[in-house]
Amino acid sequence: MYKTIKCSAIKIEENKEILCEEELVCEYPLNIYVNQRKMATLLCTPDKLEELAVGFLRTEQIVNKKEDIQSIELDKAKGCIKIQLENDIYIKNFQSKKLNIQNNDNECIYSFLDSIDCEIVNSDIKLKQNKVYEFMKKNLTYSDIFKKTGGVHSVALCDKEDVLIINEDVARHNAMDKVIGEAFLKGVYLKDKIIVLSGRVSLEMILKSAKMQIPIIISKSAPTNLSVELAKKLGITLVGFVRGKKMNIYANKCRIQQLEKGEINEK
Question: Is 108 a catalytic residue?
Fold first, then answer.
């Protein structure tokens, strides 16, 4: 199974569009079953999957010694690993990051996206290219903690004109939850807003936006293959690799407006 996959994208440099082929990191859904009961779905890089599952059980303190494990059966095509333990276990609420998708008993990993129950995002919002660059610059220069340590992610919520909310956290998912939580407490309508990320776009970040009906996600970094496919499926505009006056558009380009000649040199 490959760790990367090729994907078509629209590369924009100085207002010029080029259709190109980008290489994305593969995000793989691994369903873990223990003693015939589903425990979790981990999103991971598709290698050393047995080691990942065993490590998950070990760090959750479900297995304490190698002899606890009677058998391990991995089916890569179905995205499924079945582990039989010597003793029965009590499945608790785990502290580690995972997706708990109970209906995801896949016949193959390609049905994984179809198992995600989420409404399509409908929004007529249009965002000019220069705002993409402006919002990214504001997001990346916001955090004094990042300047001092390089150890946090920043997430911004914007309307078509400016940044409304920015929050930071050591985890990008937490930073996004902080932004959504603050918007909720302030009564901010989200269905015509933009999320700007300092870090990689995973499937979970797309899911969070989709559940809030946020139509545009912009990132300094790369998306994964599953995040691109889910963005396409749910009608979310996904923009990545925003660096200076460059960006890649991976899904639903219709919401990003090309600049007119008189606007190209706008600051």
Answer: yes
